[in-house]
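Structure in, sequence out. Go:
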C-alpha cells in the first residue's frame, strides 16, 4: 500500500470516528400497556417508580405525551413510520393484510442505519406494515447494543412485557391466594368503574406490575452504566399506549392514550434540548413525533414523508415547543371489535367524534373479556347495579363529545351540548375535520375494501380518492345536524349511485336513533334492492335498532354470501351488537353455510365461538 492510499485510509478512518463521536446513542425503554395514571411521577394516585424517578431527576418529564392509537400494533405502526395510521391504513389491530410502504418512505431506523447507526430491537415489533431488511441490524430477544462495531453509535429499543394486559388475566384463585403490596381497600378506583373488591384488587395487582417493570428499567440503566455508555446515550422511557384496566387500552380515553414519557439527555448533549435537567413540560408530544425526533437527534434531515415533528434537537426552539398543544387519536378495529372513533385534544379540552355512536364501548371483545374486571362490570350492568356514569360503557354514545380533562380526567361529563362551550366545540370539530381530510383518512372506506384496493399504495389511493373522502366526511357529519335538516340529504344519499354514499347515509341514519324512524321505508328499500352486501347489513342494522324489526334472517343471509373475511367480521360485529344490546334476538348462525375461507379466519372464529357460547 503506497503512502497516498495509507493517508486516504487514515483520513477516512478519522472522519468516520469523528462522525461517530458527534452522534449520540439513543435508547428507548418501552413498557407495554400502561398509561401515566399508575405512576406517582405523573399522577397523585400512582405508585413510586424509583428508577424512572431517578432518570427524571436528570431528565425531562413530558406531562403531555400521547400515543395516537390505544392498542399495540396501531401505536407501533405510527411509531415506526412517524406517520398517522388512517393515512396509511395501518391502524387496524391486528392487520388482516399488511401495508406496503412506497419507495420514498421507510421505517425510521433505516434512515439511522444509512447515517452509520447500529440499530437493534429487543424484541417486540407488531407492525401492520411489511418490514424491509434495512430497518434493524438485529431484532430479536438477543438483540443488544454490544454487537455493533467499535465506537459505532447505536439506536436500541428494549421492550418490557411485565405490564402487558395479559398479566392481569388472573383467576379468582389468584385473587384469593396472591397478596398485593398495597391494601386494596386503600387504592383509588376511577369513578366510571364499579367500586368493588375485584376492581380494587385489579388496581393494586396492576400497580405491583408497574413496580416490577420499574426494576427492569433499572436493569437496563445499570447495564448502560456498566458498559460506560450512560454519558453518551439519550434515553427515552415511555409506555407504548394506555391500559390496562377496563375502558383504557383499545379506547380513545385519556387512560387509553395519555402515556408516561421521561427523556434523559446527558451533559455532553445538552445542546439538543431547551429543557434543563430535572424539568417538566406541558408541550404536547405524540407517537407520530417520536421517529422524527430520533432522526433529528442523529443529525439526519427529517424526511418529508413523516407527519411527525421533532421535539428535541439543536434546531428546536422554545417558541416552537410552546406552540405544541394538540394531539390526534384514532380507533377502528381492535381484534374482532369494530368502532370508528377519532379524537382531538387541544390544551385541556378533548373532542371525541363517534362515527358509529350506536356501537357500545362494552361490545364483546374476547381478549378484553379475559379480564375478570370486564366480566364483572358487564354482569353488574345486566343486573342493573351500576350508576349512570358506570353504565355509560354499555350504552349508545353521542355522535360527538367534549370534555375538560383538567376537571374531568375520566371523561364522564359530555359538554358538547353545554352552550358555554359552543365556540370551542365548533373550533375543535372544524380542526378534526380538516385533519381527516388532510390525511386523507382512509377509514371512510370499510377495511375490507382497503385490503382489496389500497394497501399496496395507500398514499396514492388516498390522493386519488380525496374528493370522495371529503364527500363521505360531509355525509357522516349530517349526524351533527338537527334531524329535520339532515333527513332530506340522507334520503338523497340512500338513492345515490355511489355505494359508499349509500353506506354512510345508512350509518348516519342509524346514528339518529329513534328520531330517524321516518326513514324506515327508504332504508327497507335499500335492504331489499342494494347489491352491495355490507349495505344490506347496514340497512338491516337500522331496521333493528331504529325500527325494532327482526332482521336476523337478512343479516345471516348476507354473512353466508360474503367471500371476504374482514367483510364477514364487520357483519358479525353487527350481529353481536344486535344480539347483546338492542333487540337481543338470537342469531342462529349456520357456520356450514359460510364461505370456507371466511370461517377459517382466526378473528372470525372468535366471534363465532362467542355466538355459539350464547
Amino acid at each position: 500500500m503506497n503512502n497516498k492510499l495509507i493517508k486516504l485510509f487514515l483520513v477516512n478512518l478519522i472522519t468516520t470516528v469523528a462522525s461517530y463521536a458527534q452522534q449520540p446513542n439513543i435508547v428507548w425503554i418501552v413498557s407495554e400497556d400502561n398509561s401515566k395514571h399508575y405512576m406517582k411521577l405523573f399522577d397523585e394516585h400512582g405508585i413510586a417508580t424509583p428508577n424512572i424517578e431517578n432518570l427524571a431527576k436528570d431528565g425531562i418529564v413530558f406531562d403531555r405525551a400521547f400515543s395516537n392509537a390505544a392498542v399495540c400494533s396501531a401505536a407501533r405502526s405510527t411509531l415506526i413510520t412517524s406517520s398517522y395510521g388512517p393515512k396509511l391504513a395501518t391502524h387496524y389491530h391486528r392487520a388482516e393484510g399488511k401495508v406496503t410502504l412506497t419507495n420514498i418512505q421507510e421505517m425510521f431506523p433505516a434512515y439511522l442505519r444509512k447515517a452509520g447507526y447500529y440499530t437493534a430491537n429487543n424484541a417486540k415489533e407488531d407492525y401492520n406494515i411489511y418490514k424491509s431488511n434495512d430497518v434493524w441490524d438485529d431484532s430479536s430477544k438477543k438483540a443488544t447494543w454490544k454487537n455493533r462495531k467499535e465506537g459505532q453509535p447505536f439506536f436500541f429499543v428494549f421492550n418490557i412485557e411485565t405490564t402487558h394486559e395479559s398479566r392481569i388475566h388472573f383467576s379468582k384463585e389468584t385473587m384469593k391466594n396472591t397478596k398485593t403490596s398495597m391494601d386494596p381497600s386503600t387504592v383509588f378506583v376511577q369513578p366510571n368503574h364499579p367500586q368493588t373488591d375485584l376492581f380494587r384488587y385489579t388496581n393494586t395487582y396492576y400497580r405491583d406490575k408497574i413496580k416490577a417493570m420499574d426494576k427492569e428499567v433499572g436493569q437496563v440503566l445499570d447495564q448502560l452504566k456498566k458498559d460506560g455508555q450512560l454519558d453518551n446515550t439519550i434515553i427515552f422511557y415511555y409506555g407504548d399506549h394506555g391500559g390496562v384496566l377496563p375502558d383504557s387500552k383499545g379506547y380513545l380515553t385519556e387512560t387509553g392514550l395519555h402515556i408516561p414519557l421521561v427523556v434523559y439527555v446527558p451533559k455532553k448533549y445538552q445542546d439538543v434540548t431547551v429543557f434543563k435537567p430535572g424539568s417538566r413540560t406541558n408541550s404536547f408530544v405524540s407517537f407520530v413525533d417520536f421517529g422524527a425526533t430520533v432522526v433529528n437527534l442523529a443529525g439526519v434531515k427529517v424526511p418529508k414523508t413523516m407527519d411527525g415533528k421533532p421535539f428535541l434537537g439543536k434546531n428546536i426552539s422554545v417558541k416552537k415547543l410552546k406552540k405544541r398543544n394538540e394531539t390526534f387519536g384514532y380507533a377502528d378495529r381492535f381484534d374482532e371489535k369494530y368502532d370508528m372513533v377519532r379524537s382531538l385534544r387541544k390544551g385541556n379540552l378533548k373532542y371525541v367524534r363517534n362515527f358509529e355512536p350506536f356501537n357500545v364501548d362494552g361490545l364483546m371483545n374476547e381478549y378484553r373479556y379475559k379480564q375478570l374486571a370486564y366480566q364483572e362490570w358487564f354482569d353488574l350492568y345486566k343486573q342493573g347495579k351500576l350508576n349512570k356514569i358506570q353504565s355509560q360503557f354499555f350504552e349508545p354514545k353521542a355522535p360527538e363529545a367534549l370534555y375538560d380533562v383538567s376537571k374531568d380526567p375520566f371523561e364522564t361529563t359530555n359538554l358538547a351540548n353545554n352552550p358555554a362551550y359552543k365556540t370551542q366545540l365548533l373550533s375543535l370539530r372544524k380542526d378534526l375535520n380538516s385533519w381527516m381530510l388532510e390525511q386523507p383518512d382512509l377509514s371512510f372506506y370499510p377495511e375490507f375494501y382497503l385490503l382489496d384496493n389500497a394497501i399496496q399504495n395507500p398514499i396514492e389511493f388516498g390522493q386519488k380518492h380525496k374528493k370522495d373522502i371529503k364527500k363521505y366526511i360531509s355525509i357522516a357529519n349530517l349526524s351533527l345536524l338537527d334531524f329535520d335538516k339532515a333527513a332530506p340529504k340522507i334520503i338523497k344519499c340512500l338513492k345515490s349511485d355511489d355505494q359508499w354514499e349509500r353506506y354512510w347515509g345508512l350509518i348516519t341514519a342509524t346514528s339518529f336513533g329513534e328520531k330517524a324512524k321516518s326513514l324506515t321505508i327508504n332504508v327497507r328499500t335499500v335492504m331489499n334492492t342494494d347489491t352491495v352486501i355490507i349495505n344490506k347489513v347496514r340497512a338491516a342494522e337500522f331496521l333493528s335498532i331504529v325500527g325494532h324489526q327482526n332482521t336476523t334472517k337478512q343479516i345471516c343471509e348476507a354473512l353466508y354470501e360474503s367471500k371476504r373475511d374482514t367483510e364477514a367480521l364487520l357483519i358479525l360485529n353487527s350481529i353481536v351488537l344486535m344480539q347483546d344490546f338492542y333487540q337481543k334476538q338470537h342469531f342462529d348462525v349456520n357456520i356450514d353455510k359460510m364461505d370456507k375461507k371466511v370461517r377459517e379466519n382466526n378473528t372470525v372464529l372468535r366471534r363465532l365461538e362467542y355466538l355459539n357460547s350464547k
